[in-house]
């Protein structure tokens, strides 16, 4: 790691919709590139598809960075959300992970998530009605992309829609890399967990037809299958993951399709391209952020290169998804690409995103609704003027102004 | 064609049921994939190959 030029990470992106050139350079040079985190610590970066997939599927390693010597991702004293000690979460992430996943997976099956499609359509139409009533131009992130996944996740968990603003704030603070102080992070976490605990108690007292009531039953089965602490972490996790990432993806998908408006017009002409376009927008996510951390606890090889125990690796899913060896003409947006769905936007292996079916349903409903109801949808500004949100883990665009 | 699912690897994504609903289903208790047909009819072979390719856990094995 000495004597070579260590790049600052995450990379600068002068144009929000164009992948950083360092991704391709890193992929072409070696399987593991050395990078410096905002905290000053050095980590390894993985940008190849096969290497990324192998690491994500390797059950020996996980994203916990609370080991001695692990790279810190944030400028807060605790090192960022991956470095925080959290006993329930640690359990869920390591030995107990398989047990935990099998307990909560039945609540997320394809059938159960698909059953939400009509409700999601309804929420999409309502938000769009409100946006249209206010008139063009609209800032799509604030008026549509943020509220939709929050509403969906609230309905799914059976949380009151009035709490949306509060947990949007908490998750923003928890996902910080440079934006908030340690005190602010600690306070947000305390408040968020107290809120989740109350919500759980309420579901326990009045179980209904929602996902949280279902999970509460598992934790109440008295055979210790799901502890109260695990349940709280699950609620916080679902709220954080379900809101920010999907919002960002709605904005990025819309931006990608409108930047090259022929793509948008192609989907208008043939709405059967919606699922393929959604997959390509996931694969071509131009804002890769940090990627997924892996703490390497024993000596291994990555793409033939030795990686010693104690290394922190960042697996950059977006960079891997532009690997030409897997996706020929990788930078091209092709809604008919036969293997597009093999992208790593939702990771792979035992920690594959549990919310992926829900996210896919939301994105499909949104795009299908846009092409039907907003055939004149356009970007208000030059795509080169779009800016990336910085200082948080889940990266997206700062804002996206549209007209129709 | 014969198919097997490695239940240890399966991460309950359900993607195989989306690709080939006649051949794969998800178990109610844990979301793990189950086979509806171990030797599916020829008309499902392409869909099964797609399911195996897209499986995020590489849990579907096909013997042709
Ligand atoms: S696609 Fe693979 S991981 Fe997902 S349910 Fe089917 S076998 Fe399991």
Automatic annotation (TrEMBL), chain A:
Entry keyword set: Heme, Iron, Metal-binding, Monooxygenase, Oxidoreductase
Cofactor(s) the protein requires to work: heme
Keyword check for Iron: yes
CDD domains: Cyp158A-like
Top-rank taxon, per record: Bacteria
Entries under Pfam families matching the protein: p450
PANTHER family in the record: CYTOCHROME P450 BJ-1, P450, PUTATIVE (EUROFUNG)-RELATED
Family: Belongs to the cytochrome P450 family.
UniProt name for this protein: Cytochrome P450
UniProtKB/TrEMBL annotation, chain B:
Entry annotated with the keyword Metal-binding: yes
Cofactor(s) listed in the protein's UniProt record: [3Fe-4S] cluster
Keyword Metal-binding: yes
UniProt keywords, alphabetically: 3Fe-4S, Electron transport, Iron, Iron-sulfur, Metal-binding, Transport
Matching SUPFAM superfamilies: 4Fe-4S ferredoxins
Pfam families: Fer4_13
PANTHER family found in the cross-reference section: FERREDOXIN
Protein name: Ferredoxin
Organism phylogeny: Bacteria, Bacillati, Actinomycetota, Actinomycetes, Kitasatosporales
């Amino acid at each position: 790691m000495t004597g070579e030029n260590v790049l600052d990470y995450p990379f600068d992106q002068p144009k929000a919709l164009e992948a950083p050139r360092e991704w391709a350079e890193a992929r072409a040079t070696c399987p593991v590139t050395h990078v410096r985190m905002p905290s000053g610590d050095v980590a390894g970066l993985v940008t190849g598809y096969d290497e990324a997939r192998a690491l994500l599927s390797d059950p020996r390693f996980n994203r916990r960075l609370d080991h001695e010597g692990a790279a810190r991702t944030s400028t807060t004293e605790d090192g960022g959300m991956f470095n925080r000690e959290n006993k329930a979460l640690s359990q869920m992430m390591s030995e107990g992970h398989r047990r935990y996943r099998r307990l909560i997976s039945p609540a997320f099956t394809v059938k159960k998530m698909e059953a939400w499609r009509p409700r999601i359509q309804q929420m999409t139409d309502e938000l769009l009605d409100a946006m249209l009533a206010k008139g063009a131009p609209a800032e799509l992130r604030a008026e549509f992309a943020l509220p939709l996944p929050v509403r969906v996740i609230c309905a799914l968990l059976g949380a009151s829609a009035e709490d949306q603003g509060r947990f949007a704030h908490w998750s923003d603070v928890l996902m910080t890399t440079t934006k908030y102080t340690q005190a602010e992070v600690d306070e947000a976490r305390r408040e968020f967990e107290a809120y989740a605990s109350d919500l759980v108690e309420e579901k326990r007292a009045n179980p209904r037809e929602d996902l949280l009531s279902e999970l509460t039953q598992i934790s109440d089965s008295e055979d210790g299958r799901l502890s109260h602490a695990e349940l709280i972490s699950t609620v916080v996790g679902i709220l954080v993951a379900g809101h920010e990432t999907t919002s960002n993806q709605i904005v990025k998908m819309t931006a990608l399709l409108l930047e090259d408006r022929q793509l948008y017009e192609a989907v208008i002409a043939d709405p059967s391209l919606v699922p393929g376009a959604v997959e390509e927008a996931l694969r071509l996510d131009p804002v890769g952020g940090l990627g997924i951390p892996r703490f390497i606890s024993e000596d291994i090889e990555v793409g033939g290169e030795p990686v010693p125990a104690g290394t922190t690796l960042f697996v950059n899913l977006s960079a891997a998804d532009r690997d030409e060896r897997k996706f020929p003409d990788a930078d091209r947006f092709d809604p008919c690409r036969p293997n597009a769905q093999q992208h790593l936007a939702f990771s792979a292996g035992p920690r594959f995103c549990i919310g992926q079916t829900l996210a896919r349903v939301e994105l499909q409903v949104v795009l299908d609704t846009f092409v039907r109801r907003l055939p004149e949808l356009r970007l208000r500004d030059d795509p080169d003027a779009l800016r990336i949100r910085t200082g948080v883990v889940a990266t997206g665009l700062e804002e996206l102004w549209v007209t129709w | 064609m014969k198919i097997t699912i490695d239940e240890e690897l399966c991460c309950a994504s359900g993607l195989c049921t989306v690709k080939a609903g006649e051949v794969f289903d998800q178990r109610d208790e844990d979301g793990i994939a189950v086979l509806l047909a171990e030797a599916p009819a020829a008309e499902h072979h392409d869909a099964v190959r797609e399911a195996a390719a897209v499986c995020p856990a590489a849990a579907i094995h096909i013997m042709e």
